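Running this now, will post back.
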Amino acid sequence: MQRIQMVKQWTQEEDDYIRLNYLSMTDDEIGEHIGRSSSAVKNERGKLKLYRPYVKRNPIQKRPPLSFQDIIEMFDKKNY
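Update: finished.
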């Protein structure tokens, strides 16, 4: 016995809502408003070719290497 799953088709209004809000709202927020899951919204955004710009979060700042003398001065000043 096969299980048949009914797929809810996307309406033009839902697609328009995603187009208008995908840059200012999360997929969870959009999904809550239109009654869809966040993964369904993400998949539909992909079909509509609506991609969010990549934002590098918490970049690690590289410091120049410290000399032994720099380390001693830090400990002397308790600047660590």
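The CA atoms of residues 70 and 76 lie 10 Å apart. More later if anyone needs it.
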